[in-house]
Predict the 3D structure of the following.
Amino acid sequence: MMFGLRLQVKTEEQITAEQVWYGSEKVWLVHKNGFSLATVVKTEAGSLPEGKVKIKLEHDGTLLEVDEDDVEKANPPSSNRSEDLASLLYLNESSVMHCLRQRYGGNLIHTYAGTNMVVINPLSTPSMYSEKVMHMFKGCRRDDSAPHIYSVAQSAYRNLLTTRQDQSIVLLGKSGSGKTTNCQHLVQYLVSIAGSTGKIFSVEKWQAVYTILEAFGNSSTSMNTNASRFSHVVSLDFDQAGQVASASIQTMLLEKLRVSRRPDAESTFNVFYYMMAAADSSLRTELHLNHLAENSAFGILPQSKPEDKQRASQQFTKLQAAMKVLGISGEEQKALWLILGAVYHLGAAGATKAGRRQFARHEWAQKAAYLLGCTLEELSSSIFKHKAKGLQHSTSFRGGPDEAGLGDGSGSKVTALECLEAMASGLYSELFTLVISLINRALKSSQHSLCSLLIVDTPGFQNPRLAQQQRGATFEELCHNYTQERLQTLFHERTFVQELDRYKEENIELALDDIESSTSLSVAAIDQASTQALVRTLARTDEARGLLWLMEEEAVQPGGSEETMLERLFSYYGSAQGENKGAGLLLRGEKPHLFLLGHSHGTDWVEYNAQGWLTHAKHNPATQNAATLLQDSQKKNISGLFMGRASGATVLSGSIAGLEGSSQLALRRATSMRKTFTTGVAAVKKKSLCIQVKLQVDALIDMVRRSRVHFVHCLLPKAEAVGGGGEPRVTHGESLDSGLMTLDVSLLRAQLRGSKLLDALRIYRQGYPDHMVFSEFRRRFDVLAPHLTKKHGRHYIVTDEKRAVEELLESLELEKSSYQMGLSRVFFRAGTLSRLEEQRDVQTRRNISLFQAACRGYLSRLAFKKRKIQDLAIRCIQKNIKKNRGVKGWPWWKLFTNVRPLIEVQLTEEQIRGKDEEIQLLKQKLEKVEKERNEMRLNSDRLESRISELSSELADERNTGESASQLLESETSERLRLEKDMKDLQAKFDSMNKQMESMEMEVMEARLIRASELNGEMEDDNTGGEWRLKYERAIREIEFTKKRLQQESDDKLEVEQQNKRQLERRISDLQADNEEYQRNIQQLKKKAQRATAELQDTKLHLEGQQSRNHDLEKKQRKFDSELSGAQEEVQRERSLREKLAREKDVLAGDAFSLRQQLEDKDLEVCAVNLKLDQLEAELQDLNSQESKDEASQTKVRKQLRDIEAKLKDQEEELDEQAGTIQMLEQAKLRLEMEMERLRHTHSKDIESKDDEVEEIRQSCSKKMKQMEVQLEEEYDEKQKVLKEKRELESKLLSEQDKVRSGDMETEKRLRKDLKRTKALLADAQIMLDHIKNNAPSKREIAQLKNQLEESEFTCAAAVKARKSMEVEIEDLHVQMEDISKTKQALEEQLSRLQREKNDLQSRMEEDQEDLNELMKKHKAAVSQSAQNLAQISDLQAQLEETLKERQEVQEKIQALQSQLEFQEQSMVEKSLVSRQEAKIRELETKLEFEKTQVKRLESLVARLKENLEKLTEERDQRSSSENREKEQNKRLQRQIRDIKEETGELAKKEAEASRKKHELEMDIESLEAANQSLQADLKLAFKRIGDLQAAIEDEMESDDNEDLINSQGDSDTDSEVEDRVDGVKSWLSKSKGSTKNLSDDGSLKSSSPPGQRPYRFDRSDEEEEEEVREEGGATLDPQYS
């Protein structure tokens, strides 16, 4: 597999189990309670409805028919406890949860999730965090270590050392998921493994730090019995050597109001209970805690249970010991207890509820004042008697006279209890800041640091409903949830946005369409700022802004309230607004003050109670007076601590504590946070209590964003994971099943969906998470390709880094799919870079070993050379000492030795005096330089501090200037906008005045005209009849026009109402259809996403198999090279064997000749013995003879000399023979050793060859099985493609039928409508001809004509589109036929491949049989060689015997020589010498016989060699046949790849066909919509024509009388009417002809211009007129018929 996992050899049982698993198609059935394992039951096609699948549950065997959306693919059992979720074969929600549940049940709470870590909080303390476990992870890479929180720390520490870049670890999760505990483990590991200079940072010190933080910052909540109520960042600074140089802690978002007010069933901070339970008698007396109050305004009461008191007492003792470890003195501890006691007594004192603001119980207030070191009056005035102008001064921008004029009458706004709570929270906030300062004082160091590692721990997600509490969440819980949302946004940005942007920048193509990349929208609902945030205005605007900004605005508004704030929030982000503002993000609660907000992408809905939230946005002076009260305390230990703190900038804007530190990195962190609070809007809003929440989180995110972030997702196993009392529900002794039952699957699913962990894993799997710059990659991994370095040279300058990296990757033989080349860096799949790192480590170790060997050799040579020089020196010294001994008594030497020192004394004294003077001068110079150096160092330190101060001040001033300039620009733009609006309004006002004046003038003129007319009528009644008639007629016309217009308006109103009702019904139907479409779209999108995910999983699995095949091919190539080397070794061994056989034959012949010589020598020795016996007898005879002559003696002496010479020659020959025998023995030993070695190597080679042959057989069988599986898959895919083709053909036919039927019906309906329209238009033309001055009616007719023309054109376009659709459908048919032909060709090719596979199998079986026979022959040859070795051993034994005999012969020869020497003195006859020579000849004949015997053995060995050569030739032939089979297999694999490519092309063609089909469907829908719009237009035209006809009839009836009076003009009118009717009929006949032509031809000429319409005349005008009369006669008026 991929993703950095090593390939593990599987057993046969595992392989068979996986094959059974794959064959059964296991799935997960997702249901409400979780998920269940099931098996898909194969059914016949069409037996189940579409979208359904039949499954069989594993636990009870139930058969179910479920939706396809409810099942997810399951992974094989080997992946149940996979260490990395990214390595799962099928990545889906159920598989991930099953893996996590299995690991959690086995007490494996840590799991890798790509680059992230998932930790499920155990419900009991596991034993996996010991020091021994820490050292197991020390120095390990991430891929070599198991999932653990220590591996995250080790990975971050390793990256810090290698890259010298700041690192950070961010913990995410719900409250109670174990974030703080994991943070402690991270710090302990880093401090233990990295160490520190002088061990100033020990584990004990950090345990003391967390003990103090848990006491002062933790409390018991509904979700967790020991929950952190503040956010903190642990900063560890490391030096050049990787050791911890300094450390610090920064805290923010302290829930300080918990001291005085908190939800029910929750407690205050732990330190109060520790102090009340465990303070000794003296401390109790000093803190006045001997008698505790029965009730408290703050609810701080002692614990009632004895076990709780005992636990609190133990914790207080532990707390005091921790303070002592951190160097907090007794006086400083006493100051802390005094402030805590004062807070307790303030709660016991209480405050009045009505009337004057004062304490309810003054005796307890007196105790609080005494503990704080002030008087009761000072304490009371600090709490209650402050000026009202400070209540909201810093929240508003102006702080105008409205706030300043409140006076002391603000008691109705701020109650006495609120003032008391503000003082208590202020005191505790100052106390907590002091504690953080004391901790940082113990952790700081002056050592130089290089880079930092940050660990971020914040309170988790809070949801009271999850803990079964029926209350709304508080504002503090909203702040903590907001912090978690921002950290989740940072995770989304690093995981999704940055990765995709990097791929886009580097031109890396990656298909990630199924992954949603949207961030959570709840963040905007909380902190979205307005664009007018810098404008100094208190007016409410309609621009959307977040809850924090609304709280600030409503707090300063005169009538601001929580209800108004929520209404504005719902208007901005509620579901009633547009979708672009996040519909469904914000919901109203059941009660007025409640609202629901969807966190974690809508997976975690939290109900908040907003009652009293505006008090959080208002400043209370009592909070600010708390710091002044502590600084002015009469107690020196309190005032000393807080006066010292007031001088340093330890708190940023009253929000972030712990900014102490003098190191460079601490100053950089403080500057970064200050910049966040002094830039842009923050410079103006930094004193706002609500906006401070956003600014603190911004500072945290900015600090983390500058580093490389490692995320740890902490998951909560159950909603009631830590219940009351904090008792764990599960112990380690439980079984696996009980462990599995401890997980709440629905809660786990919600957490996984909220964290978008599956999408992150999908990006990690599909993308290229590891990347390196070209130059860095080349420098780092150039060691893996030494041949490139030799090729280019050591000092080669690279000009093209990309080309060099490509060449390096090619030499590394990486698979192409495992990396991608970008523009500036190379990208790798997960796990590829780790494998390269491992290879680099191996190569580096090898190189270092070679380097060490070379160094040791060099040092050894140097030592040897030194020893030689020392030896020479010792010899020289010895020589000098010897010479000194020789001259030490010489008088001149004595004189020289006495005088020479006296001469040198004077010179040495002068030199010493000169050196002393030089030393004094140098000392003075050194002191001067040291002094100057110290002064320069002081000056540089002072200047550096001044520069840092000036830079910070300059940054503040610059940020303030920027904010002021932004403020000025915004105010200027606002002023310009207002001036522009005022000018526009002024212009409108002027125009309205002019209109009013003109209208008044018109009214006045009308009145004057009417008055003058009336006056004229009254003056001249005789001449005014005509004007009266005109006036009456005008009045009648006006009344008629009014009636007509009223009627038209009523008709239009009724029509509009009908249209409105129709539109409303249509809109409701469309909305219902739209909702249905949306649901279908969502379902289809889910299906598409799931199909895409499965496709990607399959693709990744295929890539994994390809990489495995690539590795196997590399191994195969390596094996082939080794095999060729082994064959060459066999050839060399064969040649050596032949050489040894020849040498053996020679030695055997030599041994045979020596054996014959020895036998001859034995005979000679026997003859010599006989001769000796005879000579002894003759000697005795000769001794008895006393008279011998001189001549016989000389003759005998001469014979003796000759015999002696011959004996010497024989001795020399014997010595030569002895030398040859010794050489033969040595050669024999060498031969024995060589034969033994060859026998061992041969046996090993035979075994290795057997193993290789077996591996080859297994690999061939596996490849054949894989080919069979691939062929089956190809066949299944072919069947699926054929099925889809049939479905597409059926759908195309059905669509064609629908289109044809729809077009025919539309044409018929349009023809009828056109006929009816023509008739109505004819009637309208006839009527309108009788009316004079009918310009409006002509315009209406022209409009109707235009509408009719447009409808005709639309119809023609529809017909044209239908024809084009038919042509495209025919093209699709042709393409489908081509696809079917190609599929048939593929089927034939598959069948041919199947036949070739069968042939290959048969050939492999035959080759296997031949190989078995070859092995049998090979074994027989081996046995024969063993027999030959046995014969050689026998010959060696015989040779040893001959050597022994030779020694005996030598001894006898020596005896003979002694006898011959004795015989020299006597008379020896010549016959003895002749007998010796005869014996020597016999020995020579025996030696020749042995040589013939050796030649016979040589011929035997030659025959054996020939047999062995024949066997090796047969083996070579078998190996060549195997190579041919391998080549044939490779050719088959290439053919299979070609088939896959062809199937891929077919799939592309089918996708193109489906796309074209979709486009045709869209065209059909558009045509239907066009037809519907045409029908609606025609209906509207009919209605308008009917209205016109009715209006004309009414007007004609009213004008009948005038027609009767004016009868003289009837003839002219009738003729005119007839002419108009003829014109209308001719026009209608032309339009009828054009309509017929459109219906017959189906298209228009495209070349005609838009204003002209070509028509065809197939019928005469008379026929058209008759048809018009027949169809439209019913609508004509009777008088015109």
